[in-house]
Design a protein that fits this description.
CATH superfamily of the largest domain: Rod shape-determining protein MreC, domain 1
CATH topology of the largest domain: Thrombin, subunit H
Number of strands: 12
Order of helices and strands: HHHEEEEEEEEEEEE
CATH class of the largest domain: Mainly Beta
Oligomer: single chain
Largest sheet: 6 strands, antiparallel, barrel
Strand content: 15-25%
Strand order of the largest sheet: 1-2-5-4-3-12
Distance between the termini: 107 Å
Number of domains: 2
Length: about 290
């Protein structure tokens, strides 16, 4: 007998596993009043097995459903991240386009009211020398640019052409210590001169008499007497006026109309006034070797 069981134990186990649900089903199929003692015993014996199987199968199904749901959430999250990155890139491109359109509108408006013929030159570089503040523009002698020509932005003056090559030119900035321009106070017409003071300081207002009507915030414009800049171009605003008790002149700083903060200037294009000859007698400045 034992040999028979050992020989056919696998078949017997399979048969038992198949018989348990069948007997359970038959027992459940009967109505409560039709159950006999054997049926009740079967139900009582198989109930724990049934609960265990139901729990295992139900847990497996729940875990599988949760895995599929989690996978769907992860895929949806990745898709949302990709869409977020795409939208951020689109917003950045639109903002850049809007800024460029606004800048071009300012350039166009200034060009239409320009005091002399001029050309637009892109800013392509900056000087690495702190004691010689220049910008490099992508226009040169082939385009009609010459030494001494005035360089402007829509907000006001930038500087003058220091040296010009065939395809590019170096522009000496208003903030450089080698730069000077005669000005008038727009409100009172008082005369003075603006001198650059280098990268770390604002330009200075000099040769302004102590008794002149000059106040904080006054707008300074070019006087047109230097042969470089036409009359009436904005230079900046007066700041920090001091009138000493003695002496002929007051002292003040100038906040440039154009942001020339070195090396973080935001200029992208400038105007070169080609309709004016410019002065050729400025002293040479020592630019780094090309």
């Amino acid at each position: 007998m034992l040999g028979f069981i050992r020989r056919y134990r696998d078949l017997l186990a399979i048969g038992a596993l198949l018989a348990v649900p069948l007997i359970t089903y038959l027992a459940h199929a009967k109505r409560g009043r039709d159950l006999n003692g054997l049926d009740r015993a079967v139900l009582w014996a198989t109930a724990p097995i049934e609960r265990a199987i139901t729990s295992v199968v139900g847990g497996a199904i729940d875990r599988q459903q949760s895995w599929f749901a989690l996978r769907g959430v992860r895929e949806e999250n990745l898709e949302l991240r990709r869409e977020n990155l795409r939208l951020k890139g689109e917003v950045a491109r639109l903002a850049e386009s809007q800024e460029e359109n606004a800048r071009l509108r300012r350039l166009l408006g200034f060009a239409e009211a320009a005091p002399a013929p001029m050309l637009v030159a892109p800013v392509v570089g900056e000087s690495p020398v702190l004691n010689l503040l220049t910008l490099k523009v992508g226009k040169g002698t082939r385009d009609g640019v010459a030494k001494g020509m005035a360089v402007l932005a829509s907000e006001g003056i930038v500087g003058r052409v220091l040296n010009a090559g065939p395809t590019s030119a170096d522009v000496l900035l208003l903030s450089d210590s080698n730069f000077a321009v005669p000005v008038r106070v727009q409100r009172s017409r008082a005369r003075a001169k603006v001198l650059g003071q280098g990268a770390l300081n604002r330009p200075a207002l000099v040769q302004a008499q102590r008794t002149e009507d000059i106040e904080e915030g006054d707008i300074l414009v070019t006087s047109g007497t230097d042969g470089v800049f036409p009359k009436g171009l904005v230079v900046g605003r007066v700041a920090g006026v001091e009138r000493p008790n003695h002496g002929m002149f007051l002292s003040a700083e100038v906040a440039p109309a154009v942001d020339l903060a070195y090396p973080d200037s935001r200029l992208e294009e400038v105007f070169v006034l080609t309709g004016l000859p410019g002065r050729q007698d400025f002293p040479e400045a020592s630019l780094p070797a090309r």
